[in-house]
Known about the structure:
The protein is 30% helix and 32% strand. It is α+β, with helices and mostly antiparallel strands.
Amino acid sequence: MLRPTFPITTRRLVLRPYVESDLDALYAIQSREDVCKYLYFEPRTRDEVEVALQERMAVTSLEKEGDAIRPAVVLAETGELLGDVMLMWLSEEHQSGELGFVFHPDHHGKGYAGEAATQMLRLGFEDLGLHRIIARLDADNRASGRLLERLGMRFEGRFRQNEFVKGKWADEAVYAMLADEWRDLNEF
């Protein structure tokens, strides 16, 4: 079980639970076609984003496998919502989890997603005690793949036409990191 102590602060960011007042900023992200290009959903309506926001607000801890936390990532200096990160507890038996992230394109290329994702890896390995964390993405999403590699995650494979998404078959790329690899990267 994992109940993170929020907020989690980094050099430039604050990771915190979503709140009602995040609706407009989350809508500005999830309603964009370029954001949704590699996601499972099409651009969302305001009502759909409101449902997604309520779901994010409802889960702030990992109580059992299948649970996922999705803290908001805000710029510490201004409080602006940049996007969110996700840690899902995939299996208690196999001590595995999954990492994900979605950021507004205005904030790509500044290292924010990597800074926030590092905190999710830390929570998964150090606090939840996971053995393995994966990241799954559309194989055409090379920018996210490069970010995962910079985090120290290893490309493990490309599954051809693995999922039927938005009316077409899509290839899935899988990246992973083991707990001992995390420790090796973070030894001082």
